[in-house]
Amino acid sequence: MSVDGPTSMSLPKFIVGMLFALAIVVGWSYFDGASLGTIIMRAVICAVIIQAGYFLLVYAMIASSRPMSAEKAREADRGIKVAEGEKLTARRGSLR
Question: Is residue 27 one of the residues assigned to a domain?
């Protein structure tokens, strides 16, 4: 299920952004003269904060979306446009 809108972000974009942010934190820590343990600790803390933020963003997007009826969901999956009040019927025939 994809959520499109101004606040949506695809997973590949998120991963690239997260790696970029982690590279900045690692570079800043290295040039600051931090020890290897401190660099790793800062990178892990940064990754956890970014991941928690992404989780909260996705949760907020799901929580704020309106529920969709099962019929409208099937229409959306099929890409079929149905006039308001019109019902979809399935033709059932033999498999022969």
Answer: yes
